[in-house]
Amino acid sequence: MTRCPNKTSSSWLPPQAAITHVVSHVRFWLMAIAVLALDLWSKQHVFATQDSQESRPILGHLFELRRSINDGAVFGFFTGQVGLFIVASLFAFAFVFYLFACSRRNQWFMHLALGLILAGALGNLYDRATMKADIVILKGGPTGETGRLPGKIVDRATNDKYVYIGSWPDGEHPRRFARDDIEVHQQGIVRDFIKFVPKFPAWVPRLAGRDIWPWVFNIADAALVCGVGALLCTSWSGRRSEQDE
Predict the structure, then answer these.
(1) What number of CA atoms fall less than 13 Å from residue 3's CA on the CB side?
(2) Other C-beta atoms within 10 Å of 120: how many?
(3) Phi-psi region of 27 (alpha: psi -120 to 50; beta: other; left: phi over 0)
(4) For 128-158, b where at least 16 C-beta lie within 10 A, e where not — what string?
(5) What is the C-alpha to C-alpha distance for residues 158 and 215, in angstroms, rounded to an integer?
(6) Reported confidence tier of residue 143, pLDDT bands at 50, 70, 90
(7) What is the pLDDT of residues 64-106, one digit of tens each?
């Protein structure tokens, strides 16, 4: 990976800087815009055309389309920390632009990787900023059920004792909860819909029958993971080249 010159240099830009090169901008922004458009369209399409309890196989039985909403970060980690994710996304944008500015014109693979990372961060940030769900915190009660249940409150109660909570965003398949057994607040969420189906085979000890990849994800998550992986490969190959020289 290219390093920016130090402050004693006459210019902070590297030789043949990508930031002053039109073609480098085209491949960087074209990748980011194309993947972002695919991410937002796919989320809208699946949530508009598929029932919340429906699964549709794709690529044989390798993946399934399965609606899910996530109030955490990538793959559901750090549940509930929306403000933290937005701040982290802003820092990620600044870092991506810094790396692009410090790159050279011929580092096209790095530019594509940075475009993937930017698209992934923008796609999930858009959801957190614009998609709000009712987050129900289950406190136990007679059933002993605890945890977090994202969805939509449906106004079907006949008195003040119960709340009906259905799937987001349409309120389908509502469940009834006693008001005293829950807490409710609104929060930004991310729409997920891709599930990797295969499970560990029987010959894998302690993991047999479990999901190889248990998380439901989206195009933005995949773009982030692929972009970071490609960036690490670029950094590693760049260091090998420097060592060889």
Answers:
(1) 7
(2) 28
(3) alpha
(4) beebebbbbebeeeeeeeeeebbbbbbeeee
(5) 37
(6) low
(7) 999 999 886 555 455 555 667 777 788 889 999 999 998 889 8
Q: Three-state SS for 143?
A: helix
- Count the neighbouring beta carbons within 10 Å of the beta carbon of residue 185: 10
pTM of structure: 0.83
Which among 130, 131, 174 is positioned nearest to 152, based on CA atoms? 174
For residues 62 and 43, give the distance between their C-alpha atoms in angstroms, rounded to a whole number: 19
If residue 127 lies in a helix (H) or strand (E), which one and from where to where?
A: helix 108-130
CA distance 215 to 194: 9
Q: Please report which confidence band the pLDDT of residue 217 belongs to, taking 50, 70 and 90 as the band edges.
A: very high
84-111: burial string, b at 16+ Cβ within 10 Å, e else? ebeeebeebeeebeebbbbbbbebeebb
DSSP character at residue 209: T
User: What is the rounded distance in angstroms from the CA atom of residue 165 to the CA atom of residue 143?
Assistant: 16
Q: Would you give the end-to-end CA distance of the chain in angstroms?
A: 15
Please write the tens of the pLDDT for every residue from 147-197.
Answer: 788 899 887 555 678 888 999 998 888 888 888 888 888 888 999 999 999
Helix, strand or coil, per DSSP, at residue 207: coil
